[in-house]
Amino acid sequence: MRVRLLGTGSADGWPQAFCRCESCAAQRAGGVIRVPTSALVDDVLLIDGNADSPGAATRAGGDLAEVRHLLVSHAHVDHLAPQLLLFRSWVDDGPLDVIGPAAVLDACRPWVAPDAPVRWVEVHAGDAIDLGTHRVRVLPANHRVMAPGDAVLYDVTARDGGRLLWGCDTGPWDDAWVRAVAEADYDVVVLEETFGLATDVSDGHLHLESFAELVAALRGVGAVNDSTDVVAVHLSHHNPPETELRARLAVVGARPGRDGEAFSTADRA
Q: For a surface tag, which of 76, 240, 252, 261 has the fewest beta carbons within 10 Å of its beta carbon?
């Protein structure tokens, strides 16, 4: 499985364009710029494609031309940009799967011609679907747009090898959710860590403490092991500057993701 992180920032990015706090200033000075989080898997599966994703793919030296499956966790604007379906149709009339909760599909349908070869796949936690060379298991998320259950997470397994947990967006997990991924032995866990040092903003996202607790819980059931690449994403200016953030995450065997970085699960030790 090949993974390209197109963005690793929160909805407002990091640094936040309207902010001059110490964290944002340090990121600017270090040239570390993060746009909202999304990823491209094996060139064909775009996860949480947002308005920044096309430009991010281009800046990374790639493109989205082979995308055949759009996998969306929920309908917040930093995870869903339905206009991408229109832009794609101008150059590519090949088949496309659009997968996500009902609100995602409702937002996307007006951007697609009635006769377009688009397959709409509504999903709920507990579902499992086959998408070409990938098997996707739908997991619950401690997050919501308007109502419980309208946000999900994804467990993606490639037929040729490699397993990815897409954990963005979510707050802390219930114990039952952790047990449900026991022995998953993920190669990569892409997990949100939005609120950094701020512990009192919202329980619909993770901060450094709750991120560490969830990673520890996943280790405890064999979902995360010593060779799992645990990547923190959806990072905001509530986090400390890059050097301190990297050190704090390293304590729990994780690291911050970088916009544009690419890696393969074949590299797993």
A: 261
What's the farthest any 2 CA atoms get from each other in the chain? 52
Helix (H, G, I), strand (E, B), or coil: what is residue 127? coil
| Containing structural domain, residue 71 | 2-258
Q: What CA–CA distance (Å, rounded) separates 8 from 269?
A: 24
Question: Is residue 87 assigned to a domain?
Answer: yes
Q: Do 155 and 185 contact (CB within 8 A), yes or no?
A: no
Q: Which helix (H) or strand (E) holds 167?
A: strand 163-167
How far is the first Cα of the chain from the last one, in angstroms, to the nearest whole number?
14
> In the numeric block, which tokens belong to residue 5?
């992180």
Burial group, residue 176, by CB count within 10 angstroms (0-12, 13-18, 19+): exposed
The pTM score is 0.97
Q: Is 114 contained in some domain? A: yes
